[in-house]
Design brief:
InterPro entries: AB_hydrolase_3, AB_hydrolase_fold, Carboxylest/Gibb_receptor, Lipase_GDXG_put_SER_AS. Belongs to the 'GDXG' lipolytic enzyme family. GO terms for molecular function: hydrolase activity. This is Alpha/beta hydrolase fold-3 domain-containing protein. This protein is about 30% helix and about 20% strand. By secondary structure, the chain is of the alpha/beta class. The strands form three sheets. It has an eight-stranded mixed β-sheet with strand order 4-5-7-6-10-11-12-13, sandwiched between helices. Helix 1 crosses helix 8 and helix 2 crosses helix 4. It is globular.
């Protein structure tokens, strides 16, 4: 193989990763991990548990300081991390910090889910041709695998409703009548689809009250609002989606464009909070989703919050800034409204 290929970029999905012409993938974010334990700043405890044995997939559980001696059970948050379906884990420093802060602010139990992200095997995928010897080359763990893993995590959570499973934190401290889903970017996309699935097939003993969608990764074939001025960024988003889901019908696939999903009205919760950022390319998709839920007569309550002068997922890297703190307080208020 030409050695020069190792330095030539075939596909650039910055700031997530790059694929080189020799098939090598360079991940630019989401590669660092931190262990669970007691967070000294928030006094939130965490630990990792396997929820899907056959794939060795884990979730990181979070318990606030006062849960043990409070004498009452707390709302449960199931969180799905972002990263374009291709990078990040619940164990990265940014997500670990975010969940510690979220759990402390809202006084909740949290399960941060690790699902199968899309990866590239250099020996099995040629990004220049995608075909060799008549066989299609594709990423490993493509969508919809992440959705199936995420649903399996919810079923695992639900298995603790009767206190028969071995994870004491879920058995002893969770009020399964007050369950929420959340995620940012691709994780918000997943949270939305888990809400749709819950509307079709409710988990026994679990009451999904609400969903918090943070800078949701929704898209569409035709540009809307300011997207038309961002052709290069649009091309990156289009390419990332097609890379993540090789079998997709395109950018109007209901998996990425919920507005064309005939099941949108089946969203199985009573409240939704959409959070967008003013400078985020995906901003208008979040607003469009908010208006669509109202338009179709969905019976729940939908709210929206926009962070001014901020870009996509800013709160993950600037968690102590004024806008990030404001976001966190709004999310905590949303969860605790009518649940205390």
């Amino acid at each position: 193989m030409d050695s020069n290929l190792s330095e030539q970029v075939a596909y650039d999905f910055s700031p997530f990763f790059r694929i080189y012409k020799d098939g090598r993938i360079e991940r630019l974010l989401g590669v660092d991990v931190v262990p669970p334990g007691l967070d000294q700043d928030t006094q939130v405890q965490s630990k990792d548990v396997i929820y899907l044995q056959e794939k060795n997939l884990s979730s990181r559980l979070y318990l606030p300081r006062n849960a043990i001696n409070s004498g009452k059970k707390l709302p449960l948050l199931v969180y799905y991390h972002g990263g374009g379906f291709c990078i990040e884990t619940p164990f990265s420093p940014a997500y670990h910090n975010h969940l510690n802060n979220f759990v402390a602010e809202a006084n909740i139990i949290a399960v941060s889910v690790d699902y199968s992200v899309v990866v590239v095997c250099p020996l099995k995928w040629d990004p220049r041709t995608k075909v060799k010897n008549g066989r299609k080359r594709a990423p490993e763990h493509p969508l919809p695998i992440a959705y199936e893993d995420s649903r399996a995590a919810l079923k695992w959570v639900a298995s603790h409703v009767n206190g028969s499973e071995p994870k004491e934190w879920l058995n002893s401290y969770v009020d399964f009548g007050k369950v929420f889903l959340s995620g940012d970017s691709a994780g918000a996309n997943i949270a939305h689809h888990m809400g749709i699935r819950n509307g079709k097939e409710k988990l026994l003993g679990v009451n999904l009250v609400g969903i918090v969608l943070v800078h949701p990764y929704f898209w569409g074939k035709e540009p809307i609002s300011n997207e038309a001025k961002e052709s290069e960024k649009r091309a990156t988003v289009d390419g990332l989606w097609r890379f993540s889901c090789p079998t997709t019908s395109g950018c109007d696939d209901p998996l990425i464009n919920p507005l064309v999903d005939p099941d949108l009205g089946k969203l199985g919760c009573s409240r939704v909070l959409v959070m967008v950022a003013e400078k985020d390319l995906l901003r208008d998709r979040g607003w469009q989703y908010y208006y669509k839920l109202k338009e179709i007569g969905w019976k729940g309550l939908v709210e929206i919050m926009e962070s001014k002068e901020e870009d996509h997922a800013f709160h993950m890297q600037k968690s102590s800034c004024e806008n990030a703190v404001g976001m966190l307080k709004r999310m905590a208020s949303f969860i605790n409204e009518n649940t205390t």
